[in-house]
Amino acid sequence: MPNKDYNNWTKEQLVDEVARLRKRKKYGLVWEDKPEDVVEQCKTELPVLKEVKNKAIAKDKNGPVNILIEGDNYHALSVLNYTHKGKVDVIYIDPPYNTGNKDFIYNDNFVDAEDPYRHTKWLSFMEKRLVLAKNLLKRKGVIFISIDDNENAQLKLLADDVFSGGFVATIIWEKKFSPQNDAKWFSDNHDYLLVYARSKEDWRPNLLPRTEVANSRYSNADDDPRGDWTSADMTVKTYSAKYDYPIETPSGRIVKPTKGRCWAMPKERVNELVKDNRIWFGQSGDNVPRVKIFLSEVKEGIVPLTIWRHTEAGHNQEARQELKNILREGLFDNPKPVRLIKKVLQVSSDKHATVLDFFAGSGTTGHAVLELNKEDGGNRQFILCTDNQDNNGSGTKVAVDICYPRVAKVIEGYKDAKGKRVASLGGNLKYFRTAFVGAEPNDKNKEALTKQATEMLCMRENTFELVKETSAVKIFKNSKQHTGIVFDEDAIPTLKKEIVKIGGVWSVYIFSLGDDTFEDEFEDMKQKITVAPIPEAILRVYRRLFRP
User: Pseudo-torsion of CA 399, 400, 404, 406, nearest 10°?
Assistant: First the structure.
């Protein structure tokens, strides 16, 4: 299309041109963004965390501290954008499926099937949270999103945009193992998991352990001294005349690839494999050749499939029974089975992963992390975020009556529905609620944010053990480092004395109404120290997230 000189157009012509451009079809997902109360709130109030200390659990002195945040997940993710940016290995979420059956709340109201903005509200809701979540993933991080047919198509387009170029696969999970005979059209037996990598080139799935069923496909039909083997097709669809040559079988028969296909390797390589007894011509020695693959060469594992059967990844009935055994039946609609989340973790990360679920619901992800750590000696850490809304009008609150009790029981051990004692999985837990301080950048609000920032700083540094506390200085530690928080800069010399006495690696945060770095105050220190002003370090993140 030739360039148009808009400078000489009349106002009426420009209006008509804008109208024409708006009518053009665009590829991708376009919707009218709907205001959301919890997002608008952040324009006047900034989210912080407040620990609920009587809900803390410590069963493993040397283990990681797991986190449960009660509050709207938009606010929780905003806090995590300061404390955990680029630190999360894997995210699993099970968001509302927007079925129209009171499973999705927007601005404190259920979105039903008759709502004309049902999909628009859901997309607005999800887009804001996925953008915040993307910031948390490591470069080698990955997110798994459970969904069904109600929003699968829309979610795929949305996630394609948010995680540009990061789409890995759509996994089909068999959530039911028997047909639903009262279904009006088809028995709905599966859900999806959409998989996106922060950087597709940097993330690869782990190989899964080989099963006895997989190994049973290998045998030793010709008593090969190298052991059991199976055979694979030697032809490929990508035709090349160079690889379309005849092969003579041991019986003297001449065979060629089927029409439109060719051999997968040059003739010289086939001759080498024949001499090495790696080509199988069948029991008669007269069949089309196949290449031998030895079990000893593939024992490192199996590439994950995109179809997950209920036999390997659990099913809905199993998930309901798990929750019933820990709490009681019917307490939470549609929980996910522990085996599903364990498989996500086995495929996606190592034994030291940080795992986030910001639609934590009944707490299955936390349960799965603890169980997997117990089984393989892992050191994984989970972060769960869930609201405390009434669960379907039952009077039961999601965070305090379902998620927390479940996680607490599997950490400490419990009696199941039959009265049988289930052993403790061990682990540690810190419980936080979201709270707020004024967003207006005045001295009063800056002081309030600094006072409320202790929990956020401990989370950021993963240092929760209190070493020293005065009105002016707080010191926390883990096995690798210390965190010092100075609320009055006159107390800097006091902190420096503690640093000299304790030694090691330190992160130091100092209250300032401005953005002074205070680095010169620590130039004479031999220890490895990083220094940041608070609340300015937090406000920088919030300005980026909440700017108009």
Answer: -100
